Amino acid sequence: GHLDWVLLTLLWHGDAMTSAPVDLMTLVENYGTDEKCREALMHLRWPKGVTCLRCGHDKVTPVNERKVFDCNSCHYQFSVTVGTMFHDSHLPLTKWFFITYLLTESKKGMSASQVYRMLGKKSYKTAWYLCHRIRAAMASAMEDRPKLGGTVEVDETFVGGKQRGHQHKVGHPECKKEVVIGIRQRGGALRFFHAEDVKSGTLAKYIKENISHDVDVIMTDEFQGYPKALHDAGVLCEHKTIKHKDGIYAIGDIYTNSIESGFSLLKRGIIGTWHKISAKHLQAYLDEMCFRFDNRKNPYLFRDTLLKMLEAEHVEYKTLTTRVA
Hints:
The chain is α/β, with parallel strands linked by helices. The protein has helices at about 1-10, 25-30, 35-45, 95-105, 110-120, 125-140, 200-210, 225-230, 255-275, 280-295, 300-310, 315-320, and strands at about 60-65, 70, 75-80, 150-160, 175-185, 190-195, 215-220, 240.
């Protein structure tokens, strides 16, 4: 009721949900109602108390029965979800929390079909849109990342449907395969990119944007495009190669097994979880996989994902479904 809502805004307990990691049972116990979820979002968005989203004034009044605030200064009315990934959603916040937790904890991802079943088979469109908004928040966390250094492995792989008859090369209009370029700092971060091709100029672009100039060594296979790509990217470190075509996969510390294991995880996600991914949305799935992989040791991953969902720009359904020109 109104009294509970007013008390919720007055009794500020600090960052309650950040004090301990969340497991499934804790999720059900602590965030089993929309009121509890809303309180958690308020703590995350305004850890020092609610402030007006328009003018920043810290004197606001809860509006009866509407779960919104009214600014005492400019009289702008707003809720904790306005302008976030939760905006304009008819789904209960409890379902948002539950699916977000499952996406962060599912090593190989989760399909919209699975989410659709978990939501009670109400609407596949809603489940699909929900998943993509969570992915968009994860992708936003991948922006402005530091460049990779130390020992870095670079490789490329191809994902997509099987072809019957003649096997067209990537880039051909009838080729159903998509290029994924992978870069991984050994023992560190993983990055995947949906690329148009594996030409040296394309490789150089991703190497230049993601690998530090003072990197120690770069490991690749024997693909002939890498020497020119490294030169064009201005990366002048030592370049070591392993010849996979000769059946050699490691010579001492010369190998690309780290990035290969990343590709293996990606393909298990595609084959076992998502089954089919459109070229248009492939990068979203790649970002999700990298976000989860890079945060695999983060005990506060659920909380941090919610924070990104509050901070990231809202994604409209029509944006996701607009055809690529």
